[in-house]
Design goal:
With 158 residues, the protein is an alpha+beta fold. The chain has a domain at 39-118: Sandwich (Immunoglobulin-like). The chain has one helix at 2-25, and strands at residues 39-46, 50-58, 64-69, 72-78, 82-88, 95-104, 107-111, 115-118, 145-150, 153-157. The radius of gyration is 35 Å and the shape is rod-shaped.
């Protein structure tokens, strides 16, 4: 019995300080590290043969944005807060699907919403014309410049 007491005594002498250290060292509460949560938002406006795409990226520093049209990659660029891209050479009265994804370190970090748009038809513009005759015997019938401010404010100089 004497030999087992010699073995257990050093063990308890080690266990007591270790237990005190263990229970008193973890008093500080820490908050978990919040990793950035990147987000992409895609919006689009259609023309006759072009589309204006606005890509908004939040917390996307150091990444690349990959823009796809109908599932095929169309453009790759460094991520910034907001970018407007004009996709030209589209067909009139044709539907397209656009999406974007954020790539960081070769991995997809975020995906945008998918945007469906249809380009306008070549006859989708409703113009109304009024014909005015200028000049006469003493006047000139030449227009040098026309400025269109809005649909109700048009200036012609001649």
């Amino acid at each position: 019995m004497l030999s087992s007491n010699k073995i257990t005594r050093p063990f308890f002498l080690f266990l007591l300080p270790f237990s005190l250290f263990l229970f008193t060292s973890c008093q500080k509460n820490t908050t978990p590290v919040q990793l950035p949560n990147p987000q992409l938002t895609l919006s689009a406006e259609a023309g006759v043969i072009e589309a204006w795409l606005t890509i908004t990226a939040e917390e996307a520093q150091g990444g690349e944005v990959v823009l796809t049209r109908d599932g095929a990659e169309r453009l790759r660029f460094s991520a910034v807060a907001e970018t407007t891209v004009v996709d030209t050479g589209l067909l009139p009265a044709h539907s397209y699907s656009y999406s974007a994804r954020l790539v960081k370190d070769g991995q997809t970090a975020a995906r945008s919403n998918s945007v469906e748009l249809t380009t306008m038809d070549t006859t989708s513009h409703n113009f109304s014309w009024e014909i005015y005759e200028f000049g006469g015997q003493q006047g000139s019938s030449v227009l040098y410049d026309v400025a269109i401010i809005n649909e109700n404010d048009i200036w012609a100089v001649g």
